[in-house]
Amino acid sequence: GYLAASSASAYSLVSMVQRFGPIMNSGGSVISLTYVASEKVIPGYGGGMSSAKAALESDTRTLAYEAGRKFGIRVNTISAGPLASRAAKAIGGAGKDKTFIDYAIDYSKANAPLAQDLYSDDVGSTAAFLLSPLARAVTGVTMYVDNGLFAMGMALDSQAMAPAINPPKPAA
Predict the structure, then answer these.
(1) Set 11, 45, 103, 144: catalytic member
(2) Active site annotation includes 45
(3) pTM of the prediction?
């Protein structure tokens, strides 16, 4: 599983840039999709995928330099937050009535700076930007599209944190 994950999720980008870079227009752009499991532990996200995503992000930075210099193209990756996609719903259950992605979405809403639903259009709009001339000076980045969840260092939804987050109001 480890080698298959690395092949599908990391090497495929290197191979694609190697083959398509020479025929792409200068100023063109390549994007891939990564996941926060590349840098944080996500229980159950196994089979080598977390390592493959870490390799993909490293390859993105290296390819940004190499393909930028050789072909004049940009290389970036998008790290999307939890989305209730058909593929994500297939990951399986974490409980009787909820799938893993349902818990991930609830966690994100409770802890991200923007407590809102994340939609595939949010990721698509970011991809459109990264592929467009508007991002002509952006290369080698991992762009987080997750309502700001990546920036958080501590969960806010913990009962132990409740007094610190919402201190009691003084009596009037």
Answers:
(1) 45
(2) yes
(3) 0.86
Give CA–CA dist 102/91, Å, rounded: 11
| Beta sheet of 29-34, edge-to-edge order | 29-34, 74-80, 142-145
CA–CA distance, 12 with 9 (Å, rounded to integer): 6
The residue behind tokens 């994007």 is 31
Beta bridge partners of 144: 79
Q: Quote the CA–CA distance of 149 and 108 in Å, as a whole number.
A: 6
As a 3-state breakdown, the chain gives helix, strand, coil percent values, each rounded to 5, of 50, 10, 35
The tokens for 113 are 């700076």
Using one digit for the tens of pLDDT, what is the confidence trace for 87-98? Answer: 777 766 556 677
Q: Is 2 a catalytic residue?
A: no
Q: Per residue in 28-55, pLDDT tens?
A: 999 999 999 899 988 777 788 999 999 9
Q: Give the CA distances from residue 131 to residues 6, 20, 148, 151, in Å, rounded to whole numbers and listed in that order.
A: 24, 15, 22, 24
